[in-house]
């Protein structure tokens, strides 16, 4: 990882095409001039004045940088470099080239449960690592689960989107910005003290959708979605779950538990028989099951449609690049 050398981002990196955007960030492909290696440059708009609603507070961006600096794992996007000026911060990140995991699944003819559970295993592997450092992601959703490359025999999951990640302090009450209601745990909504296990609720929602193409708590109105999450009631309707194994449902049910103390942790999930079958019976139960690909495709195209409408409203201008590079280690 290159750390020092003063200069501005465009002196060291050639900016190329736009890869994506979020509320306050735009991500561009770039090429490091010295090495020729491609990266993703995330331009984050920072708040200019206290009380302004545009941009993110500098301390929040600094927190994202500090967290990314601590994380080095095969299933977690790596931070390579950082630039800063008054109004923007640029994170130069490992380039993830395989697109979103959900888009990859939607392009397939079918997917068996063992295949699906292998992707979950990778996601959990990354989460066990993060959680062992007491870092919670707090924004796990399909957009933040990508693939390193997709045209390979075994695509590798990469977790991205650490803008809301936090190192958990004792009895922590979060958060200035909240994840998408569809995926957030009840304790986040209720502003209760949080632990890393809040992420496991999101993994439960993501797995439920992956297997059925239905979102367990989503309603037409956001308020109703929130009420559904707080109640925590859901079922496995036969119309959507007729090809799902009992063991997969058990895996999900152990994560969609209202009381965080009773919810399965990431290390427990990694040992769940849906992820690592212990007996031949469990293995067979999983092998004969598959995801509901037809309905999943429907869910995914609706999700993409919603996102496209949202991003139409966002600013997509080329970022100004007069940003002075600062050492990673100099943030505080
Ligand atoms: P955050 O989730 O951290 O608050 P954000 O939603 O504003 O931030 P990101 O999720 O980090 O922004 O990125 C926005 C989009 O840019 C992603 O959905 C993805 O499509 C693309 N993207 C982000 N990081 C990378 C990367 N390292 N490689 C390729 N594409 C990326």
From TrEMBL:
Q: Where is the Protein kinase domain?
A: 13-275
InterPro entries the UniProt entry points to: Kinase-like_dom_sf (IPR011009), Prot_kinase_dom (IPR000719), Protein_kinase_ATP_BS (IPR017441), Ser/Thr_kinase_AS (IPR008271)
Region Disordered: what ranges? 310-332
What's a single GO MF annotation on this record? Answer: ATP binding
Q: Name one GO biological process term.
A: positive regulation of apoptotic process
| Highest taxon above the source species | Eukaryota
Please indicate if the UniProt record lists ATP-binding as a keyword: yes
One Pfam family per UniProt: Pkinase
One Gene Ontology cellular component annotation?
A: cytoplasm
Kindly list the positions annotated as binding ATP. Answer: 42
SUPFAM superfamilies documented for this protein? Protein kinase-like (PK-like) (SSF56112)
PROSITE patterns (UniProt xref): PROTEIN_KINASE_ATP, PROTEIN_KINASE_DOM, PROTEIN_KINASE_ST
Which keywords describe this protein according to UniProt? ATP-binding, Kinase, Nucleotide-binding, Serine/threonine-protein kinase, Transferase
Gene3D superfamilies membership: Phosphorylase Kinase, domain 1, Transferase(Phosphotransferase) domain 1
Family the entry assigns: Belongs to the protein kinase superfamily.
Name this polypeptide is given: Protein kinase domain-containing protein
């Amino acid at each position: 990882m290159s750390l020092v050398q003063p200069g501005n981002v465009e002196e060291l990196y050639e900016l190329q095409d736009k890869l994506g955007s979020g509320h306050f960030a735009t991500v561009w492909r770039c090429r490091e001039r010295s090495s020729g290696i491609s990266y993703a440059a995330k331009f984050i708009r920072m708040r200019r004045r206290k009380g302004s609603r545009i941009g993110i507070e500098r301390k929040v961006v600094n927190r994202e940088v500090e967290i990314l600096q601590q994380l080095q794992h095969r299933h977690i996007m790596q931070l390579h470099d950082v630039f800063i000026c008054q109004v923007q911060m640029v994170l130069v990140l490992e380039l993830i080239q395989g697109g979103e995991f959900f888009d990859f699944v939607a392009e397939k003819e079918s997917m068996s449960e063992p295949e699906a559970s292998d992707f979950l295993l990778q996601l959990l592997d990354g989460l066990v690592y993060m959680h062992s450092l007491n870092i919670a992601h707090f924004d796990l959703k399909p957009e933040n689960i990508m693939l390193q490359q997709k045209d390979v025999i075994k695509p590798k999951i990469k977790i991205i989107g650490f803008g809301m990640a936090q190192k958990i302090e004792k009895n922590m009450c979060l958060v200035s910005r909240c994840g998408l209601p569809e995926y957030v745990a009840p304790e986040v909504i209720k502003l209760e003290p949080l632990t890393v296990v809040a992420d496991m609720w999101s993994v439960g929602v993501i797995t439920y959708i992956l297997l059925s193409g239905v979102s367990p708590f989503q309603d037409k109105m956001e308020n109703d979605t929130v009420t559904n999450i707080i109640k925590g009631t859901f079922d496995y309707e036969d119309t959507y779950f007729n090809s799902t194994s009992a063991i997969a449902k058990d895996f999900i049910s152990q994560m969609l538990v209202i009381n965080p103390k009773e919810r399965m942790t990431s290390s427990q999930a990694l040992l769940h028989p849906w992820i690592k079958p212990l007996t031949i019976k469990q293995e067979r139960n999983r092998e004969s099951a598959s995801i509901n690909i037809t309905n999943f495709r429907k869910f995914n195209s609706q999700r993409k449609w919603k996102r496209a409408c949202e991003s139409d409203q966002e600013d997509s201008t080329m970022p100004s690049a007069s940003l002075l590079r600062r050492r990673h280690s100099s943030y505080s």
